Amino acid sequence: MATNDRISPTSSFRVASCGVLVAALGFAAGCAATSSQVKPPSTARPIQMEPMKIEVVRGEGGQRIEAFDAATLFEQAGADLNAEHWAAAAAGYDRLGKDFPGSRYAVAALYNAGLALEGMKDFAGAAARYRKLVDEHGDTKDALDALFRLGGCQAEVGNWAASAETFARVLERKEISTGDRVEASARRGLAQYNMKDAVTAERTFRDALAWYRTHEAEERLDSDFFLAMCQYYMGEITHDRFRAAPLRLPEGQMKDDLEAKARLLLTAQAQYVDTARVRHPGWATAAGYQMATLYEEMYRAIMDAPVPPKLSGEAREVYLEELRKTIEPLLRKAIHAHELTQQVAERNGIDNEWVRKSSEQMERLRALVGAPPAKVDEKQPPAAKPAEGAPPAVPDPNDQRSRTIL
């Protein structure tokens, strides 16, 4: 991210103005001086002024003259961006790039134009600006941030293959920090997961977690969001395998299938527990919801499994009733997991999609097993602050990449 000392919207104009004033005064003094007072030219470095454009603008009141430079356009576009006047901001930054392509504001204008277009949900347009910045200024720190946002825009429109490739480019850069590496790996793994390449996605997430554990003593993460995200999707991949695991007859096969499905449940549960241990509240509530879902899905899978064909009529009904009583503890485990999720949400003031879904399912399961409903303060976590993290598909970029380049 560029720093303020690299670009100051007003400094160049002020310096240039002083130079013009000094030059004017020097000219006047020279007119009054004699030839013996004339001094040799100074060897000091001349002041570099930003170019200025003058245009004739036709309006309702007739023609008028407008003079502007890159700094003026950049300052006005920045004001529009801060006011969330996205279209005006994007137009201003694009005009700066068109009229002053060699300006020191050009890189910042490209990046901020992308931000403005993201504000308009024009992710394709934003991606075009970020790609141009990377292609033309690939050796700058701004290009690294542009790569992250480019991959995010590609994910927003479901172009997962392009997103995976973009974050692979990030990971090729040797100078990136541990935090950047974890984020890029999490986003690349997400793209691979959505491309239905679970094996590759799992490897990406696992490598990111291993990298962090190896280097965590060297560098403190600014945010544990993407670390928790990697761990969460490790659980999701196992959860998907659990869902796909069949329960089949004959009875010997059914026994083997049940054991295999139970092992997958325990593995996914452990991975969700590890997600909660990262202590990111948003992802912790998502993991808690999924743990509860695991138990309920196991219950449903067993109840829906094929019944031995030798059982029919009343014998079949007795079998199903006894089976239901035997595995009802799975539903109570699910209820308990939902309760823990609500407690995490209440302690952290979190109100997000996962918390709301967890509350709804908890009440439905309580009704199913005949348990009393939760107390009001148990099932209604306070909405003390906005929903935090753990989105279902595309994570929002973290704040450090949301800042404009000044």
Write the layout of secondary structure elements.
Blueprint: H1 11-32, E1 52-59, E2 62-69, H2 70-82, H3 86-99, H4 106-119, H5 123-136, H6 141-156, H7 160-171, H8 178-194, H9 198-215, H10 225-244, H11 251-277, H12 281-303, H13 313-348, H14 353-369, H15 376-379
Question: Can you give me a brief rundown of this structure?
Answer:
The longest helix is centred in the last third of the chain and has 36 residues. The protein contains 15 helices and two strands.
Structure description:
- The protein has 406 residues and is mainly alpha-helical.
- Helices cover 66% and strands 4% of the residues.
- The chain contains 15 helices and two strands.
- Strands 1-2 form a two-stranded antiparallel ribbon.
- Strand 1 and strand 2 form a beta hairpin.
- The protein starts with 10 loop residues before the first helix and ends in a 27-residue tail after the last helix.
Quick check: average pLDDT?
83
Q: Quaternary arrangement of the chains shown?
A: single chain
Query: Radius of gyration, rounded?
Result: 31 Å
Strands in their spatial order, largest beta sheet: 1-2
Uncertain parts: 1-48, 376-400
> Tally the helices: what do you get?
15
Name the helix and strand elements from N-terminus to C-terminus, one letter apiece: HEEHHHHHHHHHHHHHH
Residue fraction in strands: under 5%
Percentage of residues assigned to helices: 55-70%
Please tell me what the overall shape is: elongated
Q: What class do helices, strands and sheet pairing give? A: mainly alpha
End-to-end distance, in Å? 9 Å
Number of strands: 2
Q: Can you summarize the main beta sheet?
A: 2 strands, antiparallel
